[in-house]
Design a protein that fits this description.
- The strands form 4 sheets. The protein has a 5-stranded mixed beta sheet with strand order 1-2-8-5-3. Strands 4-12-9 form a 3-stranded antiparallel beta sheet. Strands 6-7 form a two-stranded antiparallel ribbon.
- The N and C termini lie far apart (about 65 Å).
- The protein has one domain: Orthogonal Bundle (Cytochrome p450).
- With about 450 residues, it is an alpha+beta fold.
- The chain contains 18 helices and 12 strands.
- The mean pLDDT is about 90.
- Helix content is about 50%, strand content about 10%.
- The chain binds protoporphyrin IX containing FE.
- Protoporphyrin IX containing FE (HEM) binds next to helix 12, helix 13 and helix 18.
Amino acid sequence: MVTALPPPPGPRSPIPGGQMLAFRRDPIGLLTRLSHTYGDVVRYRLGAERITLLSHPGDIQEVMVSQQRNFTKSRALQWAKFLLGEGLLTSEGELHVRQRRLAQPAFQRQRVPAYGASMVATTQRLQQRWQDGEHRAIDHEMSHLTLAIASKTLFDTDVEAEAQAIGTALTTVLDLFPRFMLPLYNLIAKLPLPSNRRAAQATHLLDTIVYRMIRERRARSTESGDLLSMLLAARDEEGDGSGMSDQQLRDEVMTLLLAGHETTAMLLTWTWYLLAHNPEAEAQLHAELDTVLGGRLPTVDDMPRLPYTRMVLAETLRLYPPAWIIGRRTIEAYEVGGYALPAQAIVVMSPYLTQRDARFFSDPAAFQPQRWTPALEAALPKFAYFPFGGGARQCIGESFAWMEGTLALATLAQQWQMRLVPHHRVALKPQLTLRPKYGMRMIVQRRSGH
Ligand code: HEM
């Protein structure tokens, strides 16, 4: 009997709102302390909500896969509906199943390679703007790059000219994220605050761009095989045979634009940071690129010959997973690790925490790309490493992201190495993705002889 079990252990916050402040200031620090103190299942309070953090791979696997029918997405994602509407990331139930079926063909293994050439060409254009020794906000550079790649490959449009404006608009909206952890967030969202006005303007700008993309593509009669044309051509055969409404298309395009670029941009940003601090790993990466590519641009066919490049990315995804927390809500009462959760309980799982757990990774804080041997991958419990989630809601863009990360890193690291600008502070800003709080200002240095 589920009800006979006790609730999960956790702190009783003595100061009203105390935990909320600690959470807003440093959510990862708070969650780390809680899991160290209370173990693999811990319940904490955030405002009026009780939230259960699960840190053990076995428990995570149950939520994400074997018991997934008992879960919906949680509030953080309901917040994202503000921007993303009912797109793939945020929709539930039948609608999600249908949209996933329609979008899947664009992400099939055979299709993704066609995007490779475009990824390399876009990266090549970016680096042509760089000068040896200059300071650059590498987080912005990587965001521009991945935004340009997503819009070109998925929607066959160029937004390079607007990349700056889109980036700023997305940041404005994402900055509201912590607020959605607050009680009464629905009310706060309706107040005439300057931040709400800015967010509404930012959403309007993004809407304008996305609707323009859809309009332009409807007017073009050629079928270019990208995701947008597939979505436009899709018909709901099981329903009334109609296509997607403009609103639904808008939600999918906005979702893929955001989910498809922000995460990969953060992956590359943290990779540059880690390489700058680990010269041995950096040298090994350079050696692989020089041997395999010998100065030419990479192609999709080179990917199997760049195992170390992939290990570097795998290790960055372990230490700085862009999707650092994944949330769900129970539908029915649920039992986990010997504890009872009621219906409608919020459950969170953090790739950041579990992937730094010494039970599964030796010397867990160290950046060691070489740890990613086939033997480790075989020995690792499922969901000790889950940067792309799992189950029915697993990232649809995973192979796209691996390809993009590998080709962009291979293109850029052949010619450049990055060093942090002296005295630049680096700290975590865990929002919807794991961003660097003060940005990532780096010196771009041309490698000698390249
Ligand atoms: C390093 C890069 C990426 C990371 C770490 C990442 C991570 C994730 C994670 C953890 C989820 C599951 C969220 C949950 O279960 O609540 C997810 C879902 C999703 N991702 Fe990614 N992602 C990446 C790149 C991409 C790319 C390149 C695209 C598209 C081109 C994409 C599109 C999506 C979509 C549409 C979903 C929702 C899938 C669904 O619920 O059916 N992602 N991603």
